[in-house]
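Convert to structure. Protein one:
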Amino acid sequence: MTQSADSPISPATIEDEHRILRALLGRLEETTGLEELVPGLAELRSLLAVHFAREEAPDGLHRVVDASAPHLVATVVHLIEEHGECLTALDVLIEAGRRCLEGPVAEVRSGVSELCRRLHEHEAAETELLAGAVYEEVGGGD
């Protein structure tokens, strides 16, 4: 999306932006890790803010619809109202994801690190024990 939010918008521009947004939405739907999901949601939020501002501008959706299909003005008004709702929902999801990454996910990661450290030490102790037992068995009768 290369135009600025204050540039006049055309149906072709809207469709190009929608294509970009659909691709990002597809990637988000396939993403399972919060480490990738939260930045992806933030990217979506940034793109949508510009896209919505352009659609809401005086020469945005109203201009396109008023000129060619005035009977659809009520639909435009409804869709524009949904813009704020979508941005708010994104803000909530981004914040919830960040809280998980900083809280429960960080706690699990810390627990995994501690468990891995303990298992490395445990395995090293077993290896040392086995090496000692084999050494004593082989050289123990001298």
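Protein two, convert as well:
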Amino acid sequence: MQFPTPEMLDEPQQPIEFFFEDVDFELPEKERLSEWLQSAAAAEGKPVFEVNYIFCSDEYLRGINVEYLDHDYYTDIITFDYSDGALMRGEMYISSERVAENAREHGVSFAHELCRVMVHGILHIAGYGDKTPEQEAIMRQKEDFYLKKLPFQA
């Protein structure tokens, strides 16, 4: 029997993991979704080491926004970048309620909007911002580019 070394304990089980806090829904094509997100990260020059997606309600995410960012409003995603070099490491909290609302507003499916938000988080960790109109335009172009490469119908 081999005991785990400290290095083995630091290795994630999967590069991308999905968790549900206070919501429950079916993720589309989990394995292919994970591969697509890893491919987008690698194309941006920051391969995934460990990224956790945590799906939650509006109130749960608003609580994180207030506690950690001192922002008292709803949002669709909050990204925490823990990268320490060339490999991507982070956590992304996504409000499924906000995603559903955005999907209705934009006339797209929930799955399509969810994929957009998920790759948006990857792009944040890869170094893209969205605070200025110019940054937001680049972010949207990148999101659209990767959505066209989605390996399944969303």
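The chain has one domain: 14-147. The chain has six helices and four strands.
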